[in-house]
Amino acid sequence: MHKTVFITGASRGIGRATALRFAMDGWRVGIGYHTSDAEARALIAALAELGTMATAVRGDVASAEDAVRMVQETRTALGHIDVLINNAGIAHTALFTDTDYAAWRRLFTVNVDGAYHCTEAVLPDMISRRSGVILNVSSIWGLVGASCEVAYSASKAALIGFTKALAKEVGPSGIRVNCIAPGVIDTDMNAALNHEARAELAEQTPLCRLGSAEEVAEVLLFLASDAASFITGQVLSPNGGLVV
Predict the structure, then answer these.
(1) Contact in structure between 190 and 152 (CB atoms under 8 Å)
(2) What is the mean pLDDT of residues 140-165?
(3) 137 closest CA partner among 193, 209, 189
(4) Rounded distance, CA 57 to CA 2, Å?
(5) How high is the pLDDT of residue 194?
(6) pLDDT tens-digit profile of 174-219?
(7) Could you give phi then psi for residue 55, rounded to 5 degrees?
(8) How many whole angstroms separate alpha carbon 64 and alpha carbon 72?
(9) Across the chain, what does the average pLDDT equal?
(10) Cβ proximity of 239 and 211 under 8 Å
């Protein structure tokens, strides 16, 4: 029986790589995106070439109404959602003293509230079926914090607490909840870093390079699979040894 994964923030980066990897493993794939229409269309075309059933739904996970609609449209197109991957997120780099409250709130509204809205939308059906997996995409900075990224680090740390508590709550219903905390990954989010900064981060990483979105996708596929059937409430950090 084919299973369905719904991935938020799926049009680029880790989300896109994850959609492709799940499709290669035979999953039906729902992709959520906010503004990247061209990228979403291109991804749907790539998924079709892999022979998988896929659908793209547009919306802002920061909106509860949008999140509910996106989940409903995915179910209509693909059937019940077996795995939710809360991947949608934004970053903000600035001194704390230069981070105004509007920027702080926007980070939490997308990175934390977005995960809340989507989880709230899928959880009742998972509970009724006594089956499901929820995966949250945090960051190493949610584990250890980053200078000039206080708001981002705080929002990603909140996802870790969300994961650990929810896993305890819904475990008796047969639902697993886990979190990944990627290190520095070669995606658009880090494209703004200049060559020197990227080289320095690679040098600080014991494996001496940045990670790839495809490597993160492999971790998510593992946590979604039956191979991880006794793993819940955990944080797995593919970071090349940068944080241990």
Answers:
(1) no
(2) 98
(3) 189
(4) 20
(5) 78
(6) 999 999 999 999 987 676 677 888 888 899 999 999 999 999 999 9
(7) -145, 150
(8) 12
(9) 96
(10) yes
Q: In terms of C-beta density within 10 A (0-12 exposed, 13-18 middle, 19 or more buried), how is residue 103 classed?
A: middle
Residues annotated catalytic, as ranges:
152
In the block, residue with structure tokens 């940045």:
210
Tell me how crowded residue 115 is: count the other CB atoms within 10 A of its CB.
30
Query: What span, in angstroms and rounded, lies between the C-alpha atoms of 29 and 56?
Result: 9
Domain ranges, ordered by start, for the chain: 4-184+216-234
42: number of Cβ within 10 Å: 13
Max Cα distance, the chain (Å)? 53
Q: Would residue 132 be called left, alpha or beta, if left means φ above 0 and alpha means ψ between -120 and 50 degrees?
A: left
- CATH number given to 4-184+216-234: 3.40.50.720
Residue with tokens 């509230």: 113
Per DSSP, the residues of the chain read ---EEEESS-SSHHHHHHHHHHHHTT-EEEEEESS-HHHHHHHHHHHHHTT--EEEEE--TTSHHHHHHHHHHHHHHH-S-SEEEE-------S-GGG--HHHHHHHHIIIIIHHHHHHHHHHHHHHHHT-EEEEEE--HHHHH--TT-HHHHHHHHHHHHHHHHHHHHHGGGTEEEEEE---SBSSGGGTTS-HHHHHHHHHHSTTSS-B-HHHHHHHHHHHHSGGGTT--S-EE--STTS--
Give per-residue pLDDT as tens, 91-112.
999 999 999 999 999 999 999 9
> Which residues contact residue 113 at a Cβ distance below 8 angstroms, ignoring those fewer than 6 apart?
61, 62
Find tokens 């008796």 and name the residue.
172
